Automatic annotation (TrEMBL):
Function in brief: Component of cohesin complex, a complex required for the cohesion of sister chromatids after DNA replication. The cohesin complex apparently forms a large proteinaceous ring within which sister chromatids can be trapped. At anaphase, the complex is cleaved and dissociates from chromatin, allowing sister chromatids to segregate.
The protein's name: Cohesin subunit SA
Biological process, per Gene Ontology: cell division; chromosome segregation; sister chromatid cohesion
Any GO CC annotation of this UniProt entry: nucleus
Region (Disordered): 28-70, 1096-1150
Domain SCD positions: 318-402
Subunit structure: Part of the cohesin complex which is composed of a heterodimer between a SMC1 protein (SMC1A or SMC1B) and SMC3, which are attached via their hinge domain, and RAD21 which link them at their heads, and one STAG protein.
Keyword Ribonucleoprotein attributed: no
The species this protein was found in: Carassius auratus (Goldfish)
A Pfam family assignment: HEAT_SCC3-SA
Keywords in alphabetical order: Cell cycle, Cell division, Chromosome, Chromosome partition, Nucleus
């Protein structure tokens, strides 16, 4: 009979010294004959391994199925002799060969004992903390045995057990309940356990390799082992299933190697047979032929036997586990299936097995999909595509779609898979497929973009047809032709896709694969310049193609000088190593030496094309200062002359910005060219300043602007140029502020100045102020200097204040942005001021200016949808309307962000943000993120003041609604409804987050001010009507859920002091908001609703029926407002000192003492924190 795993059987086993329950894998052999054989086996040096491991396992120091680090080091150093296969395998590969050879010797002497040791090893590698019992199968009938093959829980002992057939034994594995949730060696972290996994797989491979010429074909070892692994891989316990699945698939891989060796032996014997058979009859040895034929038959039989074993493992393990719930097991199956197909393609590389890879490419886990893609890469690289035609047709769309995988590594490897398929199978991917895949060069994830760039380079730019030289062409001409062909192919790709206008991202994607092409600046510039020996190639490019080549050169120069990542690709600046730094310096030196000579000629050729000049003028920014020398002085002078000519001729903003940055780089103090570039720059600015001054004297007379059209255009263009250059460098010494003041004074006093000139004058003056604020305090400043700077700052702010009421909207917006920039810069200058530098520059915006800024934001940012629609009617089409709305939204977001910065940087009072917070719900889609971030920043600055701002916001909205209702204007679009105010309060409460302790004081103050606001002027005894603002309590109840339990009691006590017990118990309909608010404070139990408290309170009153309560729930909160009484003239309560109760006054000391006494009333499950004083 099969012994049940009960406590009695375990005690008997322990008495016989065969099973140790604390051991990891104890094996109890029922047969007394086997016990005798195991005790008689002695082999000298490895006696412990050749005998039954169970007799000595109770002396093992490891009680959890694994070695500690100390034991492992001892075993590694040879201090302690290993007594189990598990311990020997843990030592590493050095001991693997010897232990397998010793085990084979033990198996040859006593195969049952050695095989039980091997079974024990696999159980122990699963991390089993239980035991294994075994008995013979001979006396059992098939039906009786199969009825006992179970995996269940023994309720008497509390142990789990599994009985299964591992011929010729019936094994019972028993383990504690906690094994299901515990760790086991294959999933444990650390370098030691990672090595153990590789050692475990190596052991299986070495075992089969060493046994392939002897015991592997005895019909006993592998049959038992396959039966064991098949049964345990089907267990409900993850540890058994994972470990034995890995062992089974590794066993199949090892058997494939045996089958391959047998195939080689069969081929060799077959050739030997053919050689012998080809001999003459007189020299042919018939016995030898018979021997060879018998050997061939024997090898083929063995090969067939091995394939049957492989088929048994595949059907018994793989087909059940490749869809296992554990992703690691599925990944193991897919990884090994690729090995089988690659090693034994004659059997496994067909559609019957490939379909599993195709199916698992849809797996939910990225690791499984990655294993499938990597396996397919290896198969397509082995030129096995002819056997995969049907698979490729069936799953091509899936492989292409995996480039869009949400896991970046899977997408990258899918791209590489398509690259391999494109190389091995020319006609599989259609031109449309290639076009869709090549679009990934513009994706935001740089590794995927570079992989797509490599695919693009290999497919289009490395085409053999492009590299065919022309007959009779020289090496230089051949190189030029090849370069031109590649550039034209790249131009065709870029223009046909029409996905992206930035060549910089295309260059970044191609940089790793086509770096040599992109760094060939000599060849690229030769395509743009005339060439005496190859005039046709120089003129082959059209104007659009030349523009692309120029942008390609500019992007490659930037990539070589700065490198990735670009904006949108990567989280930050990449840290480059020494080798990459050296390559970068060499590239910068190379481009500097080349372009300092070639760039003047290019600028001269394209002097009339502002778009091409803008790209070319970016190149001097990346010149390497170390490569600059005085030998190139003439080239530098030519470059400066072309720069000056370009900025004099053009007024394009992009061109001017590129030129300003180039001048800034060339005028650097540490550059040898500073002595040449700085005078040229000064002459240019002086020329513009003189021109502007002359034109102003001609156009300004008697305080009015009288300039003609030519003068106006020249003034405007000069101001634009100066405004662009003043951003890059300080131009204060040219007195530009005074020139701008003259123009602005004329506009303020008499108007008539063109709108564009006014805007440019504001920008010029703002930049001058910012530079002065930046340089103020660098040296020791005097009081007179500080007063002068403050006067200038005040005068500029007053001028901008006047411009806020200008007739033109663009002027108003520019004045607002200038004011915001200047005030924020001044605030930053005060925060960073060093007291040792002297007197700081102090300036505070006056209240009129603050109100003007607020009014501007309300009028220009929070516009109604009707106004937006009306303003977009001038568009000619729906697409233009959409673009106009987006641009208008972007403009308004910038204005709102500028105002929010003023509040966050403490330039304006925090209470000025109340008007912004009112619009949080109404304009949530457009400005919700900006307003929410402002709210969070203000709360970080001052929690109490931020809460007061929220209270002010809600109370102002409520009072405005009351006033409109009193007047009878219930449909005004300017007033928010009661439900919208309540929703706004709910949104405000959500911003406090989950940390209730952090927001205790703020929330308590909100409730305190709300109660005082509602009951201001209310007399408990004489008043029969409810307070006029009682419906505000429903709005206030939105914040109750954020209160701590003791704070709710304190707030309720505070409410009782104002309202009185008689009023609180009133059940009239006009007092329903108070009932609702009271219920929200009393609803402390988890999951309880405020309405349930209303019901429980009102059940005592027969006047409030179920019908009336249902009306309250169905009609909504608007009813609370309409039922309240009407006394008018109440104003917003600013502070707790202004609110006084006529009867039963409550002082702060009384309130504090009542809050403190509330600590005694806390239950054990409440938060033990200090009570909040809601008065302070």
């Amino acid at each position: 009979m099969i012994a049940e795993p009960t406590l009695l059987s375990r005690s008997v086993q322990k008495e016989n010294s065969v099973v140790d329950v604390s051991s990891c894998a104890s094996v109890h052999h029922v047969s007394s004959e086997r016990n005798e054989n195991r005790q008689k086996t002695v082999r000298g040096k490895r006696k412990a391994r050749e005998c039954s491991e169970n007799a000595k396992r109770k002396h093992s120091k490891s009680s959890n199925g694994s070695l500690g680090r100390a034991e492992y080091e001892q075993l590694k150093n040879g201090d302690v002799e290993a007594v189990t296969l598990f311990e020997v395998v843990s030592m590493g590969r050095n001991a693997m060969q010897a232990v397998v050879d010793d085990w084979i010797d033990a198996y040859s002497g006593d195969r049952d004992s050695a095989l039980l040791d091997l079974i024990s090893f696999f159980i122990q590698c699963s991390g089993c903390k239980g035991m294994v019992t075994a008995e013979m199968f001979q006396s059992k009938k098939g039906a009786d045995v199969m009825s006992k093959m179970v995996e269940d829980l023994d309720e008497d002992t509390g142990l789990q057990y599994k009985k299964f057939l591992a011929f010729p034994w019936i094994l019972t594995v028993t383990w504690p309940l906690d094994m299901d949730s515990g760790e086991y060696p294959l999933i444990m972290s650390g370098l030691y356990w990672k090595r153990f996994r590789s050692h475990f797989c190596e052991f299986v491979s070495v075992l089969v390799a060493q046994c392939q010429n002897c015991v592997i074909f005895d019909g006993y070892l592998l049959n038992t082992l396959i039966s064991l692994l098949t049964e345990l891989s089907d267990s409900r316990v993850r540890a058994f299933r994972h470990t034995c699945t890995l062992a089974a698939v590794k066993l199949l891989s090892a058997l494939i190697n045996v089958a391959l060796n047998l195939s080689i032996s069969v081929d060799n014997s077959q050739r030997l047979y053919e050689v012998e058979l080809a001999k003459m009859t007189s020299k042919r040895a018939s016995p030898r032929l018979d021997r060879i034929q018998r050997k061939i038959s024997e090898l083929q039989d063995r090969k067939c036997e091995i394939e049957n074993m492989m088929d048994a493992i595949f059907k018994g393990v793989f087909l059940k586990r490749y869809r296992d719930v554990i992703p690691e097991i599925r990944a193991i199956c897919m990884e090994e299936l690729r090995v089988w197909m690659k090693l034994y393609s004659s059997v496994f590389l067909n559609d019957s097995y490939l379909k599993y890879v195709g199916w698992m490419m849809h797996d939910k886990q990225p690791d499984v999909r990655l294993k499938c893609v990597l396996g397919l890469q290896a198969l397509y690289q082995d030129q096995s595509s002819s056997k995969m035609d049907l698979f490729t047709i069936r799953f091509k769309e899936r492989m292409i779609s995996m480039t869009l995988d949400k896991d970046h590594e899977v997408a990258i490897q899918a791209m590489r898979l398509l690259m391999v398929i494109s190389q091995s199978c020319e006609d599989v991917l259609s031109p449309d497929d290639h076009k869709n895949v090549f679009q990934f060069v513009y994706c935001s994830h740089r590794p995927l973009a570079t992989t797509a760039g490599e695919f693009l380079y290999n497919r289009l730019l490395s085409n053999h047809e492009l590299s065919k030289p022309r007959d009779g062409a020289s090496d230089q001409e051949s190189h030029r032709e090849l370069l031109l062909a590649r550039v034209q192919a790249l131009i065709n790709f870029h223009t046909e896709n029409e996905l992206h206008q930035h060549v910089l991202y295309l260059v970044d994607s191609l940089w790793d694969s086509a770096g040599a092409l992109l760094k060939d600046w000599t060849g690229l510039t030769s395509l743009l310049l005339p060439h005496t020996s190859c005039q046709e190639q120089a003129t082959a490019l059209s104007s659009a193609e030349e523009a692309f080549v120029i942008e390609l050169i500019s992007a490659s120069v930037r990539q070589a000088a700065e490198g990735p990542p670009l904006s949108g690709r990567g989280a930050g600046k990449k840290v480059i190593n020494t080798k990459e730094k050296k390559i970068q310096i060499d590239d910068c030196t190379k481009l500097t030496e080349h372009f300092v000579k070639v760039l003047p000629e290019l600028l001269s050729k394209y002097s009339e094309d502002s778009e091409k000049l803008s790209s070319l003028l970016k190149i001097p920014q990346y010149f390497q200062t170390d490569a600059c020398d005085h030998e190139n002085s003439q080239c530098v002078l030519a470059l400066l002359a072309q720069l000056e000519a370009a900025v004099d001729r053009h007024t394009d903003v992009g061109l001017l910005e590129a030129a300003a940055r180039s001048y800034q780089s060339l005028c650097a103090q540490d550059l040898p060219w500073h002595s040449l570039a700085r005078p040229s720059f000064d002459r240019l600015i002086q020329h513009w300043t003189d021109t502007l001054g002359t034109r102003l004297r001609e156009s300004l007379s008697d305080g009015c602007f009288t300039g003609n059209e030519d003068s106006t255009l020249e003034i405007l263009s000069t101001l634009k140029k100066l405004n662009v250059f003043i951003v890059a460098q300080d131009l204060s010494k040219w007195s530009l502020y005074e020139l701008g003041t003259r123009l602005l004074d004329v506009e303020i006093k008499h108007s008539g100045l063109p709108m564009e000139v006014t805007i440019e004058a504001l920008r010029c003056m703002c930049s001058c102020i910012l530079w002065k604020l930046n340089t103020f305090g660098e040296g020791l400043t005097s009081r007179e200097s500080a007063l002068q700077q403050r006067s200038q700052l005040r005068a500029f702010c007053e001028k901008c204040h006047r411009c806020l009421s200008h007739a033109e909207q663009l002027v108003r917006e520019q004045a607002f942005m200038c004011l915001s920039d200047v005030l924020i810069a001044h605030n930053y200058q005060l925060q960073m001021w060093d007291s040792s530098a002297g007197t700081p520059l102090l300036y505070t915006p006056d209240p009129k200016l603050q109100k003007a800024l607020l009014s501007f934001v309300v009028e220009h940012v929070f516009t109604s949808p009707e106004q937006d629609t009306h303003s977009s009617k001038v568009s000619e089409s729906e697409s233009e309307c959409g673009d106009g709305r987006l641009e208008d939204l972007h403009r308004r977001r910038n204005l709102l962000a500028a105002y929010c910065k003023l509040i966050v940087h403490s330039v304006l009072e925090m209470s000025m943000a109340a008007e912004l917070f009112k619009q949080y719900v109404k304009f949530y889609n457009d400005f919700g993120d900006i307003i929410k971030e402002t709210l969070n920043r203000t709360r970080q600055m001052d929690k109490m003041e931020s809460a007061r701002t929220l209270v002010q916001c809600l109370q102002q909205l409520y009072l405005r609604l009351k006033q409109e209702q009193d007047r009878g204007n219930t449909c005004s679009s300017r007033v928010q409804t009661y439900s919208s105010i309540k929703e706004l309060a709910r949104r405000f409460s959500l911003t406090f987050g989950w940390d209730q302790i952090k927001s205790r004081e703020s929330l308590a103050m909100i409730h305190r001010d709300g109660i005082e606001f509602v009951f201001k002027g209310f007399v408990q005894q004489s008043e029969k009507h409810s307070p006029p603002y009682i419906s505000y309590l429903t709005i206030l109840s939105e914040f109750s859920s954020k209160l701590l339990k003791p704070d709710k009691k304190t707030i309720y006590s505070y409410l009782q002091k104002f309202a009185g017990e008689q009023v609180i118990n009133n059940r009239e309909e006009s007092w329903m908001p108070l009932i609702y608010y009271r219920a929200s404070l009393m609803g402390t139990a988890e999951g309880e609703d405020a309405i349930s408290f209303i019901s429980s309170d009102t059940n005592k009153q027969p006047s409030l029926s179920n019908r009336s309560r249902s009306q309250v729930n169905s009609e909504g909160d608007q009813r609370f407002l309409s039922l309240s009484s009407e006394p008018k003239g109440n104003e917003l309560l600013k502070s707790s000192e202004d609110s006084k109760v006529q009867q039963a006054p409550l002082s702060r000391e009384q309130l504090t003492s009542s809050l403190a006494s509330d600590k005694v009333l806390r239950s054990s499950d409440e938060v033990d924190v200090d009570t909040v004083d809601i008065d302070g």
